[in-house]
Design brief:
39 strands, rod-shaped, mainly beta
Length: 513
């Protein structure tokens, strides 16, 4: 519905000539609230009590529109009175997609009785029965229900003779926004500007009341309107934002529609792949906002949510296009797979590089900032493997015969930004001082350290190379070569002993990763 002030283009016409002056135009429909036999019906007779008066319209296969007015009252006189408003020739339309459709204009009040006068017309029992008055305190709601759109063309009303007369003023507003459409002053028949007062989806509501500044009032005698193709339902908002494609498994999904929806049909048109077996759908009171929750989302899984064209408005209209949202769930919290030295290790040579291996690739900066040792090691150096799953931490500050505790705090995150659920702690104790290098051979260089595939030796004629584990087990012996193939040796710390042809030797501690 467009929200604009409408301008008045038709002047006052004597109220008793209303029906004669207005003739149905092609594409128009109408309702006239008149008492056809003029028998002086009680003007305060309740038409709908506090329930709704339904003006039910049907469009046949040729575009002819018929009206059946229905009151919830059980008084035979009231039923007969309302039946006089029935009209098998209430209007026509040439819009073929609307042929066979039905719709209703539902008239209600703000908790007061809808009533009539002896010559027809609708009023509200309140300050004065038989008319709408009371400085805006009495409100007539006109709500569209069904699978068509409606454009209100004309409103006919009669200013009351007492307490208002020609000064009577009606206000027409949008019910949802309370935005003013039209202020009617003094005239009894008002045409609305083309295309401005539209109800293009069900349900949508206009309000008719009196101006707040005047006590005068009047009664509504009838409406002329044009039926239109309705607005199709669509997605007006979605959370998470479509650009967010990495989601926590606890995420909720909120879908805002541009109109009230048929909740059951719409839920069936929303699908997740893979399927969620325990999806919970919660709607707001107007049927325009759906919240989807589930505890069935799996970690690190690709999903797609499809909102298909089978979604349906409360008026029975389907969407023109579907909505697709692809996302991936985040993994569970990262953990440490293993450390070297292992937690609780004893007799670890001082200066041994520490290795931490993770279950997945990590944000390397976050790990380096989250790692600390007690006693403090202030000269930590970090060397990562290419995938970011393993880091070697070196320090020359380590003391002999000392227990060190390493703590990786919860501010360490993986490459998805997921933090540790709890700190990871490991400790080890360094060995007493042991000489591992012949100081006479300071020029011998064994590199790289850490090593991965090949170890190189420079600075001496190599006769033999022996590789021992920290516990003293011989792992491999190589002769007469300066290039040592490390394939098949498990990652860890090893003591490499290099001997020359004169049986001089040197030992180095290396890390294999």
């Amino acid at each position: 519905m467009k929200k604009q002030l409408l301008e008045k283009v038709f002047t006052a016409v004597f109220v008793l000539a209303v029906s004669a002056c207005f003739v149905n135009l092609q594409g128009q429909a109408k309702v006239i609230f008149e008492n056809g036999d003029d028998k002086g019906e009680n003007r305060t007779q309740g038409i709908a009590g506090r329930d709704a008066l339904h003006l039910n319209y049907t469009i046949d296969g040729s575009g002819d529109i018929a009206l059946d007015a229905v009151t919830p009252a059980d008084d035979p006189d009231v039923i007969a009175f309302v039946d006089t408003w029935d009209d098998p020739n209430a209007g026509t339309t040439d819009i073929a997609p609307l042929f066979g459709k039905s719709f209703s204009l539902v008239l209600t009040t703000n908790g007061k009785r809808l009533d009539c006068r002896e010559k027809g017309g609708l009023g509200i029992q309140g300050q004065n029965s038989g008319r709408i008055d009371g400085s805006g305190g009495e409100i007539l709601y006109i709500t569209l229900q069904g699978s068509v759109g409606v454009k209100i063309d004309s409103l006919m009303y009669e200013p009351t003779e007492r307490g208002g007369g020609d000064d009577a003023s009606f206000v027409v507003k949008d019910h949802d926004t309370d935005e003013l459409f039209y202020l009617i002053e003094g005239d009894s028949i008002v045409n609305f500007d083309e295309g401005l007062m539209e109800m293009r989806f069900a349900s949508d509501t206009l309000t008719v009341t009196t101006a707040d500044t005047l006590d005068a009032g009047g009664r509504v005698l009838g409406l002329y309107f044009t039926v239109m193709e309705p607005t199709n339902p669509s997605i007006a908002g979605f959370s998470p934002t479509p650009g967010d494609t990495l989601l926590d498994v606890s995420s909720d999904f909120v879908v805002l529609f541009n109109m009230p929806m048929n909740t059951a049909v719409t839920e069936a048109a929303l699908t997740f792949t893979p399927a969620l077996t325990n999806r919970v759908n919660t709607w707001n009171g107007t049927g325009e906002e759906l919240t989807i929750t589930s505890d069935d989302l799996d970690f690190l899984t690709d999903y797609e949510l499809v909102i298909g064209t089978a979604i349906q408005s409360a008026g029975g209209v389907n969407a023109l296009i579907s909505f697709n949202y692809a996302f991936q769930t985040l993994p569970d919290a990262p953990t440490v797979l293993e450390t070297y030295p292992a937690d609780g290790a004893m007799n670890v040579p001082a200066g041994t590089p520490k290795t931490i291996e993770f279950i997945r690739s990590m944000n390397t900066d976050s790990v380096e900032n989250a790692l600390s040792f007690d006693p403090v090691l202030s000269d930590l150096a970090f060397s990562w493997n290419g995938s970011g799953t393993k880091v070697v931490v070196s320090s020359v500050e380590m003391e002999t015969a000392t227990t060190y505790t390493g703590t990786l705090g919860t501010n360490a995150t993986d490459i998805y930004g997921v933090s540790f659920a709890e700190p990871s702690v490991f400790s080890f104790t360094t060995a007493n001082a042991v000489a591992v290098e012949n100081t006479k051979y300071q020029d011998v260089v064994i590199y790289p350290n850490p090593a991965s595939e090949v170890l190189y030796i420079r600075g001496t004629d190599v006769s033999a190379v022996n590789i021992h584990s920290i516990s003293g087990q011989l792992i491999r012996s190589i002769y007469n070569s300066r290039e040592i193939d490390l394939s098949g040796i498990e990652p860890g710390s090893y003591v490499v002993t290099v001997a020359d042809k004169d049986e001089n030797s040197v030992r180095k501690l290396i890390l294999l990763q």
